[in-house]
């Protein structure tokens, strides 16, 4: 029996990779460069999901410094350049690589829809040997919009050729984007939801990534 979804679109941070340790290291490098104290990884985990500019703003606010639209620009450039130069790959969550490859082998087209900048996202996919699996990648700066705007997600689905699609993420932005375009959404419980994951409104919540194919088959009926 063919897989019931033609394409599946994934979030990156908190869904495929545990990037909070890397973001914390790079963010603290930037904070130090601008004379601000370091943050803990636990603090950074609560800031993930709305794109790099918002991450930088939240980080500086947590250290007692507000950044307006002008002041954030040099800080953001430092953070993005440092992140791109960071050579320690993020950690894939258990079962991600094998599950993605199994889905691809079933003919499912895979896409990435993340609020992380595209050049960093593509570099991470390369470092993790996942580039060949993704037929479309949209970062937070690829389009004029980003999640939770549904157009961010729908663009990826269109690039994959359309058909029956599903979204897999870990926070409210992923659920809202999926709802905006009328496709089902699976939430992984281990990510950075910033609220109880059961309250995100996803169709299914999973603890293990390896359970995704079975959950999607069940969801499709």
Features:
221 residues, two-stranded antiparallel ribbon, 42% helix, alpha/beta, 8 strands
Description:
Helix 1 crosses helix 4 and helix 7 packs across helix 8 (172-181). The protein has nine helices and eight strands. The strands form two sheets. Strands 5-4-1-6-7-8 form a six-stranded parallel β-sheet, sandwiched between helices. A two-stranded antiparallel sheet has the order 2-3. By secondary structure, it is an alpha/beta fold.
Rg computed from alpha carbons, rounded to a whole number of angstroms: 17 Å
Uncertain runs: none
Give a quick account of the main beta sheet: strands, pairing sense, barrel closure: 6 strands, parallel
Main structural class: alpha/beta
Q: How is this fold's topology laid out?
A:
Blueprint: E1 7-10, E2 17-18, H1 20-33, H2 41-45, H3 52-62, H4 72-85, E3 91-92, H5 96-105, E4 109-113, H6 118-127, E5 134-138, H7 150-159, E6 165-169, H8 172-181, E7 185-188, E8 204-206, H9 212-220
Parallel strand pairs: 1-4, 1-6, 4-5, 6-7, 7-8
Antiparallel strand pairs: 2-3
Helix pairs in contact: 1-4, 3-4, 7-8
Briefly, what is this?
By secondary structure, the protein is of the alpha/beta class. 42% of the residues lie in helices and 14% in strands.
